[in-house]
Structure formats: C-alpha cells, structure tokens
Amino acid sequence: MRELTHFINGEHVKGTSGRFADVYNPATGEVQARVPLASPAELDAAVAVAVEAQKIWAAVNPQRRARVLMNYVGLLNRDMDKLAEALSREHGKTFPDAKGDVVRGLEVVEYCIGAPQMLKGEFTDGAGPGIDIYSMRQPLGVTAGITPFNFPAMIPMWMYAPAIACGNAFILKPSERDPSVPLMLAELMQEAGAPKGLLQVVNGDKEAVDAILDNEVIQSVGFVGSTPIAEYIYGRGCTNGKRVQCFGGAKNHMIVMPDADMNQVVDALVGAGYGAAGERCMAISVAVPVGKETADRLIEKLTPRVESLKIGPYTAGDDVDFGPVVTAAAKQRILGLVDSGVQQGAKLVVDGRGFKMQGYEDGFFVGACLFDDVTPDMDIYQQEIFGPVLSTVRAETYEQALALAMDNQYGNGTAIFTRDGDTARDFANRVNVGMIGINVPIPVPLAYHTFGGWKKSAFGDLNQHGPDAFKFYTRTKTVTARWPSGTKEGADFSIPTMG
C-alpha cells in the first residue's frame, strides 16, 4: 500500500504525528493509500520554511513571477492525463470530468500570468504643492488554503495561483480523501521555477486546520466546503486577525418557464444535476417548473433520460456519465436522505437506491434518483445532498418560483431557462444569489470574473479568482511624498491639506 507524504521545503516528507487516514478507491471500495495527518508542529515547520521562501519570492518582480506561472501552465498541459488519472482514481469522477477539473484550475493560472497589470498601483502627480501621492499593492506574506475533495485540482489552483502571483508563499491543506493531485501540483510548481517552500502541501484533518487558524504568521486563509465548517473557519480565523474568505454549501435552483425549450432544459438538468455524481457546489439539485403543464412535460421527458444514465468506474472511459461518490459514509448519507424524501411524501420517480455495479459491488455507487412533488419543508429540499439526486418543486407562477430561490438559506448559483428576455432580465436583477445562469445551468464564471455566492454560501468580502483575488492577496500601501524646492520654517498644527 502506498504511503503518501507532505510536501515541505521542496521535498516529500513523511508524517511524524503517527496519525493517518485511509485513501479509498471509490469504485472498488478498497483502501489504496494512507495519508499522514499533520500535527501543529509539522504545520509550524512548513510555516517557518514559507517565511524564508516568501522573502525571496517577494523580491522577484511581477513579470518574472509571471514567467514561472507560464512555465507552470506548460507543465500542467504536459501532465494533464497523468493528473486526471490520479484524480479519477481517488475521487471517482470520470476521466473527462477530471480533465475538466484540471483545466478550470489551469485557466486561473493563465489569468494570473497577467499579474503585472493587476498589481499596478496608482499615482497622482502634483496632488499638492510639491506633493505626489502613490499607492502600492504589496503581498501579505504567508497565506494558506483549506480545500475540499470534490475539486482537488481546480480549487487549490484558484487559491494559490493568485496568491503566488501577488508575491506570497502558500500552504495548502487539501482534503485527506484525495490528496495525491495536490502533491503533484506542488511538485510541478517547483519544476516551473518557484523557490523551494513557496508552495507546500500539509495534509491533515481538524488538528491541522486549527493549527493554520491559530498560527500567528499566516496572514490569510481561504476555504471551500460545507457551511457549518465555513462559519467555524471564518469566525476563528477572523478572531485571530486573519483575512479570511470561506465558501460553503449550496442548493441551486433552476427555474423552467413555460416557453423554455424542453429539450435544452432536459439536457441541462441531466448534465448539471448528475455530473460528477452531484458532488459539485454548483450542481443543480432543484428543478422548479412553472405551471402544471410545464412540470408534467418536464417529468415526462426527464424520466427516461435519468433512467438511461450510465454509471461506472472511470476506467470505462467515455461510456460512463458519472461514477461513484467519494466514500461509503457519503453513500449512506445520500441514501438516507432519499429514504427521508419518500417517507415525507415526495414522489420518487426514478429510484437509484438499489443500483449495483457488476464487478464493483463494494464500490460507493449510488444510482440516479429523481423526485417530483417535493415541498420546501422536506429534508431533501432543506439539505445539500451532494449526490445524484434531483428534486422537482412545482411552482404555480414565476413569482412563486423566484421566491423559492430567494427564500432559501443558500445563495451560491441559480439558473432560469426561458425565451423571454424581460423575464430573464427581471430574474437576474432581483434574485439574491451570487451567480446567475440564463439558459446556462452551471454559471461558473471564467477566470477573469469572480466566483462567489451570497447568504450562507459565502463568508467574507471578496470572491475567488478574477480581480477580487488580487485584492484579497495584497495590501494597499499609500505614500504621500513631498520634495520641497525651498525651506519653510515653523510647525503647522492644522490638519494637512493639499491647498
């Protein structure tokens, strides 16, 4: 069995805490590796290395930092298949989906190559008699990120690429469920030309998380995961004086208007609801058809499509629509929520609870489930299921459908499918959700815009990637300079003005 490591000071380092977690192959249910769980002392050792690496890196001008990121993009493309295969093996998602995971992270690295432009300050010549004012964007120092299992390549790159572009060092605490790809990504950063210790990977559980939050040297923390943990990290991190951005859970609604193209709607729901076995924070988990006729047509067209979805291991290639969920515990939680939906009166139109994969009976597979007649008081509506389960909540009117999305505690993403521009524009303007899709089911912005939700889906003032990332990972310093041409004697006790 493989024993994984940390990546500290440019080297693979064995864990010294004596604590380990099992890393499974979700398709077979077998333990394929062990990952060490760091102690606070191991985290502190990585921080000490990061301090020295950051001093070296901050002295490198932004253009030369960008060249390292350009090298990094080339290495990511070179090792794309290798990264995707390792990702699929530990996460369970299909190979094409795993490549997409890497590509969406790579796109943020590409955006960060433009760091010299984003890090330019401001200058005012002659703000007062012989006075100039200018501002500088300077790095924070040592930064850290705590990332989830469902995107082990994309989300780490969303965090450390802009942090490094801004001149910071970065310590990554990835999910202990699929840690191999983050380790590979750190190796490639060093191969690209970054100093040893600039990007380090410290594996761990809550003990390592708390060590990050309590370490006085670490200046900022990013997190993506569930809302309860996001609230915990945000509160503890802010209390300790850190800059913190946390992204939590989601319950993404897709409104289906009567005039929508139903074929497009069904294609969108199948892909957005069941892709990656529903283990996406931007997955559509609630369909909201407006009007009985719309709902009946939707269920009629959607049911056979859901029933025909192909489930299997990533090794089956393009013949699989989605794979297993990440752990046995995740599978049991999903099945328990499906059971609760039936018990609370929802109509289970497609029942995937009994799915078994021949030859992979011990894998963590869950068949696709489709509910109709779900109501907002049910557990399957209230909770983020994070599995291949789509709930249909029927609305009589557009206003009722809009209210469902607005009244939900989460505000990550939402979508509307319609051919009416007025309705689409009204929806986009009024709904209190951070990312909106108009005839687009998964409205994840591209790298040069920002990603972030509202309400209990996000905690902090700034979003991920895009221009917000350069604000999050830098501080602004403003300099007021006078170069007097003559000598003026005497103190001035009034507040300074530029007159």
Please, could you describe this protein's structure?
The chain is an alpha/beta fold. The protein has 2 domains: 2-248 and 457-479, Aldehyde Dehydrogenase, Chain A, domain 1 (3-Layer(aba) Sandwich), CATH 3.40.605.10; 252-438, 3-Layer(aba) Sandwich (Aldehyde Dehydrogenase, Chain A, domain 2). Helices cover 38% and strands 22% of the residues. The chain contains 16 helices and 23 strands. The chain has helices spanning 40-58, 62-78, 80-91, 95-112, 115-118, 154-165, 180-191, 206-214, 227-239, 262-274, 292-307, 328-343, 379-382, 398-407, 421-430, 467-472, and strands spanning 2-3, 6-8, 11-13, 20-25, 30-36, 123-128, 131-139, 142-146, 169-173, 199-201, 218-224, 243-247, 252-256, 284-289, 347-350, 369-372, 389-392, 410-411, 413-417, 435-438, 454-455, 458-459, 474-482. The chain has a 7-stranded mixed β-sheet, sandwiched between helices. It has a 6-stranded mixed β-sheet with strand order 10-9-8-11-12-22, with helices on both faces. It has a 3-stranded mixed β-sheet with strand order 1-5-4, covered by helices on one side. The protein is globular, with a radius of gyration of 25 Å. The chain starts with a strand and ends in a 17-residue tail after the last strand. The model has no long low-confidence stretch (mean pLDDT 96).
